[in-house]
Amino acid sequence: MFAVIKSGGRQYKVSVGQTLEVNRLAVEEGSQVRFEEVLLISDADTTMVGSPLVANAMVLATATKQGRGEKLIVFKYKSKKRYRHKRGHRQELTFLTIDDIVADGKSLVTGEAPKAREIPTINVSLSGAKDQGTPAVEQIETPPEPTELEAATGGVSEAGSESETEPEVEKKTSRRRRTARTESAESETEE
Question: Minimal CA–CA distance to 58: which of 77, 36, 39?
Fold first, then answer.
């Protein structure tokens, strides 16, 4: 039993239990990935060919680790022109282990519906974008707007100062030389 899936503009022939290297996906190690772009599924007695995709089919895989491939040397050379450029490249990869092949809502391994995992799954959609499952979203509280009296006096009411104090925000220095010179010039004029 095997399936042909599409990921990152490439097609891969996969079977259950196989380890697969694909172009880097934005997933965490140990999370489950669903490939919904299944082009072909072949079993012992049946073959389902998609036009272009097989309907109601997906391949479930677990991301084992993130890594990099072998180093490739890219050497450009033009004779008699003194043009030689040597560059190296290592492709960013995600290593996957294929867990299950699902067709028509049933696993081809067990014959039952696939079991949901506790970790949110990642959907690889037709456009190539990754959609995360439904992780919990943290709510960020914003400080209340100052009243007209506080804005006019520049002060904070007693109720606002008791509830929470705002941490001091560090001013980031710019890496540009010109701004560094103007800041040092301003500090000298103040003294």
Answer: 36
Amino acid type, 51: S
Q: How far apart are CA 122 and CA 96, in angstroms?
A: 13
Residue boundaries of the structural domains of the chain:
2-132
3 state SS for the chain: CEEEEEECCEEEEECCCCEEEEECCCCCCCCEEEECCEEEEECCCCEEECCCCCCCEEEEEEEEEEEEEEEEEEEEEECCCCEEEEEEEEEEEEEEEEEEEEECCEECCCCCCCCCCCCCCEEECCCCCEEECCCCCCCCCCCCCCCHHHHHHCCCCHHHHHHCCCCCCCCCCCCCHHHHHHHHHHHHHHC
Instruction: Give the pLDDT confidence of 77-125 residue by residue, as tens digits.
Output: 999 999 999 999 999 999 999 999 998 888 887 777 777 665 555 666 5
Residue for token pair 């699902």: 102
Torsion of CA 146, 150, 155, 159, to 10 degrees: -70
Kindly report, residue by residue over 10-67, the tens digit of the pLDDT: 999 999 999 999 999 999 999 999 999 999 999 888 889 988 899 999 999 999 999 9
Residue 76, beta-bridge partner list: 85
Residue with token string 């082009």? 39
